[in-house]
């Protein structure tokens, strides 16, 4: 009986030791912040345009370079960087930040008041050097492309903000049509880009329930259409079938 108890005890110790060893092997996250409580995001770099986002009661908004609703999935991808796995941690004073691309940083990512400086790549395994405070971290570069995204790709793909209520849409300068309100309210583009060189098109004036109006133009572009916003100048890309719905053209 004594031997059995001893054997069970040794087995328990071995299992605990193995679990502890596995916990040590699991990479720790870049930060301990909770993405659900982050209220602002800022991305700055030499090779991209500065983007700023803020969370309000209706969700995430881009503040710069556009003051428009942000795409929730794009913001979630940025927030996921906060939990990127860390391969190594070292005191920064043991290294030359300039040689690691951290002075100045190639990219600066800011979650609220937490500043994350992102530098160059490790020449062997191509991990990124990251600085947080006085700590140097080496992180697998699975997020670099997210930080260099075009701002237009991070915007909500709906030409009219989901919080705005559409009362009618006037085409070609004619009176607003209530039957087009639903199509425009639910329209989601394939993508968003800076306004192209296409000209002409069909003018569309979207009336909102608060009395304001948003001018657009529906323009043929290649095999599809763009819904061009006047201010700021952006193109929302649609295939022909969905563009025809916006124009009230049904088979």
Task: Describe the protein in words.
With 251 residues, this protein is of the alpha+beta class. It has 2 domains: 30-150; 157-246. The protein is 20% helix and 35% strand. It contains 5 helices and 17 strands. It has helices at residues 2-25, 72-80, 144-147, 181-185, 240-246; strands spanning 28-29, 40-45, 51-56, 59-64, 68-69, 85-86, 88-91, 107-111, 114-121, 128-132, 135-139, 166-171, 191-194, 202-208, 213-221, 224-229, 234-238. The strands form 3 sheets. A 9-stranded antiparallel β-sheet has the order 5-4-3-2-8-9-10-11-7, with helices on one face. The protein has a 6-stranded antiparallel β-sheet with strand order 12-14-15-16-17-13. The chain has a two-stranded antiparallel ribbon with strand order 1-6. A hairpin with a 2-residue loop joins β10 (128-132) and β11. The longest helix has 24 residues, at 2-25. It is elongated and about 70 Å long. It starts with a helix and ends in a 5-residue tail after the last helix.
Key traits:
251 residues, alpha+beta, 2 domains, 9-stranded antiparallel sheet, 6-stranded antiparallel sheet, 5 helices, 17 strands, elongated
């Amino acid at each position: 009986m004594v031997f059995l108890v001893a054997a069970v005890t040794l087995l328990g110790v071995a299992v605990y030791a193995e679990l502890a060893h596995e916990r040590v092997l699991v990479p720790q996250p870049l930060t301990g912040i909770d993405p659900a409580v982050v209220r602002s995001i800022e991305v700055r770099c030499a090779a991209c345009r500065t983007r700023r986002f803020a969370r309000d009661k209706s969700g995430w908004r881009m503040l710069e370079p556009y003051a428009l609703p942000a795409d929730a999935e794009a913001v979630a991808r940025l927030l996921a960087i906060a939990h990127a796995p860390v391969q190594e941690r070292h005191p920064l004073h043991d290294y030359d930040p300039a040689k690691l691309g951290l002075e100045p940083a190639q990219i600066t990512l800011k979650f609220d008041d937490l500043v994350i400086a992102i530098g160059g790549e490790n020449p062997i395994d191509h991990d990124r050097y990251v600085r947080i405070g006085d700590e140097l971290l080496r992180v697998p570069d699975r997020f670099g492309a997210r930080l260099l995204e075009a701002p237009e790709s991070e915007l909500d793909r709906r030409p009219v903000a989901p919080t705005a209520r559409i009362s009618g849409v006037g085409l070609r300068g004619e009176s607003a049509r209530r039957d087009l309100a639903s199509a425009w309210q639910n329209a989601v583009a394939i993508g968003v880009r800076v306004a192209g060189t296409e000209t002409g098109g069909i003018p569309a004036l979207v009336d909102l329930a608060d009395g304001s109006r948003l001018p657009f133009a529906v323009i043929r572009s290649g095999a599809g259409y763009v819904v061009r916003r006047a201010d700021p100048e952006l193109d929302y890309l649609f295939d022909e079938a969905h563009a025809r719905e916006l124009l009230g053209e049904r088979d």
